[in-house]
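I hope you will forgive my troubling you with a question about protein structure. The record follows directly beneath this note:
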Amino acid sequence: MMTIIKYILLISAAVFAGYLISGGYQKNIYWVFYSGFALLSLSFAGLAYFTSLKRFSLLGILVNILIVSMFGLGILELGYVVKSYFEKDNKLPEMSYSYAEAKDSPDAFKKWWDHYLATLRKVWPKYIQADTTGYYPFVAIPNATAKAFDATISINSLGFKNREFSIDKGNVYRIVAIGESTTAGALINATDLPWPVVLENILKQRLDIGRPIEVINAGFPGYNLSHNLHRLRDDILPLSPDMVISYHGHNGFKFILNSLPKVGTKDPPVYRYRPSWLLARIEYTIKIFRFRKNFYASVPESGENTAEPKHDLLKSKYARYYKQLIGICRTHHIEVVLCTFNMSVNEQSPEDVIAFYEQGHPVARKKIRANKAHNEMLRQFAEKYRVPLVDTSPNLDGAYDKQFIDLVHFTQSGRDQLAEHIFPVVKEIITKKFGIDKKHR
């Protein structure tokens, strides 16, 4: 009789411990979670003590397996706590944005992205101010200088993220690059260069037309093509550019999403910190699995992440803005070059890589579909209106391993590659215009 009472008490204690563990875990109350954990361990130890492996072999084996499991879980949790304590004052690893470096930590990229944005928020007021015209979300402060990470941000007297240049170009062949922060340059290291600067250096080294060539960086963080159409009229046309290169995409995805089939899923789950880091990872893995299953079920039969339009892409709002860009440039006899946009992940990327980037960009899958539609729209647009289009995707689109610091911003290697893609098209246009064919050195 006493044995039965002992078992009832131990099992009741184990059930109560489970209640404490569950409540503490869900509400992130650490002392409740670990109190339940300790009580459950004692309950299992008591059951093991009163259980004979000979008389109750199945029960005894089960109880001892549970004890070993609890002991192992405790060791793992203790090891993680000790490791976290000694690393709490350390800076984020320099390559936290790299999937290869941070894939084993599900929240590593989110920490990097939060750190990146927090740094920019401190820096922005030093070179960005409110716009009084109502055309832009904000504008640059002329002659401003700021430091972001190890890179220096310099705004010239005309409000461009560029060295000083004269409005009167003289005999200079002037190219203006317009775009978003991906053109302005999300720089980290002191030696980093925006891709327009890299392109200018390549042109100077490899192309001789008997006159200077310059590339002005007119990219600006937070701007989309609509904003840059205003800037083209207000600030760029007075510079008398010979060519405009457009690298747009991410900030204008909203202009094309309405042309795509709706995907009936909620945003992907966000990694949540819990009293147990191991159980938190298991929870997150299960949620991601369910999300992917529901996402696949809601995507059109043509396949996950496809961009099959429900409307003509050339009738989208994005296409109308591109048409305005072409119209303005042709009216002013300016050569125009369009470029496809790139992201660190695309529809062919591994699922675990997409999930990694979702920590900082919860709607990454939606953006993957939008970018595919955007680039397809550009191909149709270029063919219909006979506009030079640079396919910048080789070794860039989906190259999460070394070309990106987040979903869309390049490392220096990525910016170098983008400039290399653009150079042949620019070279062909210039040599044709001047009737020369200098060798690509």
